[in-house]
Amino acid sequence: MERNVWRTSSRSGSNGQCVEVRDRGSAIDVRDSKAPAAGTLSFDPVSWTAFVSGIRTDASRP
Fold first, then answer.
1. Are the beta carbons of 24 and 4 closer than 8 angstroms?
2. For residue 44, which of 18, 20, 22, 25 has the smallest C-alpha distance?
3. Separation CA 20–CA 34 (nearest Å)
4. 41-43 and 28-32 as β-strands: parallel, antiparallel, unpaired?
5. E strands, 1-62, in order
6. Domains of the chain: which residue ranges?
7. How far is CA 61 from CA 8, 31, 40, 53, 56, in A?
8. Which residues, in sequence order, are CB contacts of 27 under 8 Å at separation 6+?
9. What is an example of a Pfam family matching this protein (predicted)?
10. Distance CA 33, CA 62 (A)
11. pLDDT of residue 1
């Protein structure tokens, strides 16, 4: 992931229901793509990795 650049997931559809993610090195930021000025959530890299791993694990369950 390129640093300091907001990106939208490749799995986001065209329905406008998506988030954007930015890697700042020391933190990973997440924001609502429909309301970027509304604020961001920031995660330290270890917490972000655990979060993404959890999502992937849950997504693979029937």
1. yes
2. 25
3. 10
4. antiparallel
5. 7-8, 19-23, 28-32, 41-43
6. 16-59
7. 24, 27, 29, 13, 9
8. 42, 43, 44, 45
9. DUF397
10. 29
11. 59
- Integer Cα distance of 62 and 47 in angstroms: 25
Q: Compute the C-alpha angle 22/23/24, nearest 5°.
A: 110
| Residue 17 one-letter amino acid | Q
Structure tokens at 10: 């490749």
Residue 55: both structure tokens together: 């999502």
Q: Which two tokens stand for residue 35?
A: 């309301």
What is the value of pTM for the model shown? 0.76
The per-residue pLDDT for 46 is 96
CA distance 55 to 35: 23
